[in-house]
Amino acid sequence: MASDYREHLDAASLRLLAETTGFASTDDVNPTFPSRPHDIKVALASPKAARLLDVRDRNNPVQHRLLQLAVAVHQTAEDICQAGWIATDETVIDLDLLSFSGQSQHQQFVVGLLASYLHSPAPAGFVDITPTATACNSARLYSLIDLVVTASDTERAGALRLLGDEALFTAGMFPGIAHNSPVDLALLTSLKSVLPKAVVTLMDELEPQLRSLLDVYLTFGPVWYRMATQNLLFSSARESLNNIATDFTTARRFIVQVAQGPLGDIKHDLYPEIV
Question: What is the pTM for the complete model shown?
Answer without folding.
Answer: 0.89
